[in-house]
Structure prediction request, 243 residues.
Amino acid sequence: MSVLLCLSALFPVLMATEVPKMDCFATDCSDIYSSGKTDSGVYTVSSIDGPVQVYCQMVPTGQHERGHWTVILRRMDGKVNFFRSWDSYKRGFGNKEDEYWLGLEFIHLLTRRNQYKLRVDLEDFDGSTAYAVYESFSVDSEADGYKLHISGFVNGGAGDSLSTHNGMKFSTFDKDQDNWNGGSCALSKSGGFWYNTCYSTNPTGQYLWGKDNVDINASANWYHWKKSWRSLKSITMKIIRVM
Ligand SMILES: [Ca+2]
Prediction:
């Protein structure tokens, strides 16, 4: 599959197939940037399982979060349903121009090969923003439950709502690997995540458009920013290669 797409990118007339922004040798957005593509947008990178589309956020030098970020999760308008099965979270879903989950298998393949840093960007419905950085981020294989490893928290005003999820396996409504013996966090909190008993952040929870008079306990939130389960307007999780 990937070989075919690479051939079509190299010989578009022969293959009669247009593959925009394809780079056969790019594994992530740092490689895309190195190949001369400096605008943010959706690009196609390669993995051993074939081509993968990602949103690359290219932040110019001179800005605080400069770099070439590979977005692994984006919530921004509630258009996509994130209450999905194990297979969906494994393979990824959504719209790369909009809301999506990149997929656990691809995230694992990336972070197995190189060392990555994670940044989480938050925005509330009043327009305030905050972020959190974890200097090291990796995800184990499916055989190990796609277990999360993070360390090196740096506070960008958001506080640390992810360290309680460190070392947890991933859970969905059809695969309960959390630490709550009394039930399923994914089922109770309407998402898929590295749930513990259950969470300090629930970025794949329900999108509530700021209507916090409903079930905010299952909302898309990040508790330590405002010591509240209030739903957020946007949540972006993105990674960048550091070694
Ligand atoms: Ca459980």
About this structure: The longest strand covers residues 129-139. Confidence is low (pLDDT under 50) at residues 1-5, 7-20. The first helix runs from residue 2 to 10.
